[in-house]
Prior knowledge:
By secondary structure, the chain is of the alpha+beta class. Helices cover 43% and strands 18% of the residues. It has a five-stranded antiparallel β-sheet with strand order 6-13-8-11-14. It comes from Porphyromonas catoniae ATCC 51270. Keywords: DNA-binding, Transcription, Transcription regulation. InterPro entries: AraC-bd (IPR003313), Homeodomain-like_sf (IPR009057), HTH-like (IPR037923), HTH_AraC (IPR018060), HTH_AraC-typ_CS (IPR018062), Tscrpt_reg_AraC-type_HTH (IPR020449).
Amino acid sequence: MASILPPLQTNRDNPLPFFPTRQPHLTLTIWGQHIPRNTDLCSMTQPTIQRYPFNSPSSLGLEVKPLTFLSEKAEKASAIHRADFYLLLWVEEGRLSLSLDFEDVCIRDEEALLISPGQVVRFCLDSLPKGFAVLFVPEFVGEAASDIRLLHQLLGASLRGYKVSSLHGLPILGLMHQLMRELTAQESVYQLIIARSCLRILLAEVARRLPHEAEGGGELAGRFFAAVEEHHHHLYNIQDYQRLLGIMEKQLAGAVRQAVGMTPKAYLDQRRLLEAKRLLSFSDLSIKEVAYGLGFDEPTNFNKFFRKHAGLSPGDFRLAQGEH
Length: 324
């Protein structure tokens, strides 16, 4: 069905849509660089939090490793960092402890946890269990509606707290071995199909063990979550996302509420708040730099936003985090 929304305006020199509600980009200086105020600070070449790209000899965008690989990367794994890829952790036997954003998480026998790109992680390597880690880029899963829904159902649920899924009694070890065989097999048209199918099964088993309220919403909610993840540092109005996705307000509101039990505006605010908390907790940026980096015109507006949604000022939050 054709959208009844007006077409997006475009710039002759840049065919990508632009939104007239945005203010001209002002600049600030961070690390001696002049950057737009609403630059995504986490994607800069000198990151505020160490960020690792997907780096694999496989051309598929997928890699499977025993959990012992964390000890081989101990210096990186035990330090605060982010990744630009998904990381599915499955413990066959033993226990794996880590800090994920602001929570301490423990994965035990036959449990799994999906870590999304951009989440702040630090592993405790006192003891490593038997199990596997599946590393993959978002594009690997595919662009089908069901794939978008699955990935971003998991992503949307992450704002409500991180859930470890029990996969007890399921043939997970066989799926892991199948994935590893496909990665070493001679390339063929079937290699990608089989590897992608195995990963879809793993993700689906993790997803259906989430709380019931985290399910639903369909493709539309998934597309919204993906758009927020990509644009939250420079698009702040829900109308911008409606135009970007070509959908009506009621459609979006219904899909997002069904998926995560909140309005689209509340979800966007929570996502911006989460990024603010990450930068305040895990970076050395000043509060002013965090405010401008997240797109606020003035630090005072950021302070009001943060106090409204977090219940305390950015400075008090940073002090409280430093005491833990």
